[in-house]
UniProtKB/TrEMBL annotation:
Biological-process GO terms, alphabetical: coenzyme A biosynthetic process
Pathway(s) served: Cofactor biosynthesis; coenzyme A biosynthesis
Alphabetized UniProt keyword annotations: ATP-binding, Nucleotide-binding
One Gene Ontology MF term: dephospho-CoA kinase activity
Protein name per Swiss-Prot or TrEMBL: Dephospho-CoA kinase
Organism: Cannabis sativa (Hemp)
Length: 163
């Protein structure tokens, strides 16, 4: 089962509407191709108000102290610069409250992988009826049922008008 990743970094609010439109078209193309899982890696998902059309929302959470130390190690930045960068975004605690699924990233890489595998099982489980209705297969089923219904009704109406 292929999983597609679309990575976006929204650094300019002026470009956000165009980026959102581009993301939508990429998602639509993947949906038409039959992708069962599409992962959007969008650091500013909530700030860009793109959370309204994504489901489920998965937040990878870490405690603030670990987040600060990891950011400093990754970027080679000092504590003040790293803290300013963290403060420029919505807090992970607030994102965690808005999430449908939270992946705890305070442990080791092996623990993170284990958490990810649990989430992967969750998002690839069989669909509910509502989710099916919103899926490619559900949309095609509705379209086929509608076409069959229209043809059936036309035949009944044309046969009754002959009598």
């Amino acid at each position: 089962m292929p999983i597609f990743y679309v990575t976006i970094s929204l650094s300019c609010s002026l470009l956000a509407p165009y980026i959102s439109s581009g993301i939508f078209w990429e998602i639509l193309k993947l949906w038409i191709k039959g992708s069962k899982v599409i992962v959007l890696d969008i650091p500013l998902l909530f700030e860009a108000k793109m959370d309204k059309w994504t489901k489920p929302i998965i937040v990878v959470w870490v405690d603030p102290e670990t987040q600060l130390h990891r950011l400093m190690a990754r970027d080679g930045s000092n504590e003040e610069d790293a803290q300013n960068r963290i403060n420029a975004q919505m807090s992970l605690d607030l994102k965690r409250k808005k999430a449908d699924i939270v992946i705890n990233n305070t442990g080791s890489l092996d623990e993170l992988n284990e958490e990810f595998q649990k989430v992967l099982c969750e998002v690839t489980k069989p669909l509910t009826w509502t989710e099916f209705g919103l899926s490619r297969q559900g949309a095609l089923s509705v379209l086929a049922s509608t076409i069959v219904g229209v043809i059936f009704c036309r035949n009944i109406l044309s046969n009754s008008s002959r009598l």
